[in-house]
Amino acid sequence: MGKSILITGASSGIGYALSYEMARRGYSVGLAARRIEILEKMRDELSSLYPDQKFTAIQLDVAEYESVPAAMQKTVDELQGLDIVVANAGVARSENIGKGKFVNSARTIETNLTGAMATVDAAVSYFLEKGSGHIVGISSVAGLRGMPGSSAYSTSKAGLSLYFEALRAEVYFKNIDVTILHPGFIDTPLNNMLPTRPFLIPVEKGAKLIASMIEKKVKSSTVPVFPWNIFSFLIKLLPVNILARMK
Ligand SMILES: NC(=O)c1ccc[n+]([C@@H]2O[C@H](COP(=O)([O-])OP(=O)(O)OC[C@H]3O[C@@H](n4cnc5c(N)ncnc54)[C@H](OP(=O)(O)O)[C@@H]3O)[C@@H](O)[C@H]2O)c1
Questions:
Q1: Is ligand 1 within 6 A of the CB of residue 80?
Q2: Which of 21, 181, 196, 238 gives the lowest tally of CB atoms within 10 Å of its CB?
Q3: In the CATH hierarchy, which fold is given to the domain comprising 4-243?
Q4: Ligand 1, pocket-test mutation among 6, 68, 190, most atoms within 8 A of CB
Q5: 50 given a catalytic annotation
Q6: Phi and psi (nearest 5°) for 106?
């Protein structure tokens, strides 16, 4: 039987393109997000393109943590097993500190950090029982430094990366692979309103790179590797008076 993968945030951007890319590579795909009508359309299209693989549409709000285990179980049942879970669902909202936007900051943490942790927790529970599995987290280069104007977003991604470090150590002897990826700018609705997006790549290219990194079971990487690997190093050295101008 072929491999199967669950992707959260499959209704748009990276998750959408990655769903099609993994299907093209022969995987059965669980499509999870809140907008079920988009997922059902994707499921029907993917089923007619790849009739020998399974596809399922799962309505899921990752910030409703208690609903995540049931969504995971539904995916396992409908795909008849699950090998890889990608915690990709995320938001990026306007959230300058002290400007009355705290509700946006809280929602960012609830989705990108706690929601991703709930996804990982449910996945690990299943993989421990099964005796194998692969967990993938989509962090960001924005999590490598506290970026002005993106305080909660940076915090959510830095938190996710640290959580994955702990996860890797916890499941080290359990036959569970752990991958954490840090994309730079990939062209999606998440960021297409920004005035500048350095080193932007099309979402299809981003999805191909991410798919290859998943298949290679890369432990941790920027996406694409270059130039963001250099950026990751340099951003940590940047003095705060320069960072302050990057709003
Ligand atoms: N694009 C980039 O340049 C970039 C760079 C670094 C990291 N990332 C990360 O990549 C991931 C995907 O982002 P994207 O650029 O593809 O953004 P996007 O096009 O806006 O897609 C975000 C996806 O997340 C889903 N989502 C949002 N809140 C959710 C929730 N509470 N429960 C379940 N699903 C939820 C959305 O689906 P529904 O609205 O249907 O729920 C949508 O499918 C995010 O974690 C983002 O932080 C993106």
A1: no
A2: 196
A3: Rossmann fold (3.40.50)
A4: 190
A5: no
A6: -65, -40
* Prediction pTM value: 0.98
Residue 206: predicted pLDDT: 98
Pocket of ligand 1 contains residue 91 by CB under 6 Å? yes
Give the model's pLDDT for residue 38: 98
Which candidate in 50, 126, 153, 163 is catalytic? 153
Q: What are phi and psi of 188, to 5 degrees?
A: -145, 170
Please tell me the predicted confidence (pLDDT) of residue 245: 87
Handedness of CA 230, 235, 236, 239 (dihedral sign): positive
Strands 4-8 and 28-33: parallel
Low-confidence ranges of the chain (pLDDT < 70): 1
Measure 131 CA to ligand 1 centroid, in angstroms.
29
Distance 9 CA to ligand 1 centre (A): 5
